[in-house]
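Example with several molecule types.
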Amino acid sequence: MTFVHGKSTYISLNAKDLSPFTTTSQIEKTADSHDVTTYGKNAHVFRGGLLGGTGSMSGIYDTSTSAGPRATIEPLVGSNVSLIRRTEGTGTGLPQQTVDVLVTKYTETNPVADMITWSADLQLSDVITTTTQT
Amino acid sequence: MNLHAVAQEIKERLDPLFTERVFIGAPDSVTPACFVIPLPEAVDFDATYRRGADSVTGWEMLAIVSKVTDRNLFERVAAYCAGNGASSVKQALESASYDSCDSVVVTRVETDTVTWQGTDFQGAMFMIDVFGAGSTA
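Resulting structure tokens for the full complex:
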């Protein structure tokens, strides 16, 4: 068992590597919950339903007009694209998550005393495919 | 991001303000007004994933303006500490882009006396934040 630092995380959206501009990201996997409680039970009983989830990513704004967060993500708002996330970094045998996402939000924040930051909210669409990198 | 490359570009931008008396590292002797760029206390690595960016926060650089007995001391210090103007350190460092890094911001200046080799000078310590690429030297 080994703990892993987050600095090597790889994340791409629509085949564009956004790792150099990203400081944090997450994928939240959820499932519908259906109450199937019947007579005679003393507590609720649930069964799982459709899977779902959300993702988010954020980082430091870059001026690149071809590869930066604004150039890559802003035009995708309202579109479905592929998200690839390598939690433990890039390397043979390491896990990789691939999922279709709907980009629901892109935000830029300009503080007076700090670097400009960006963030994006993602809606998972269909299942997450988890593979092992080769 | 290479600290010496950043210091070199800072020197190039400040040389006109200090008549070429900008020193990377401690000078052997001081003739005011001059500017000293020492090593920073620390570099913070991994500001973004996969070595995308590193940063230096509060890099202290010292302007040695004049002897404390200088009658025009206040005016000279004020010119270097001004937010803008021909002698403004902040304006000189923030008005141009850099090859060695992405961002140089002068966040604060503190004034105090500096004793150098037994002589008291009026100094102004500038605090500078630098942000740049992490994966290249």
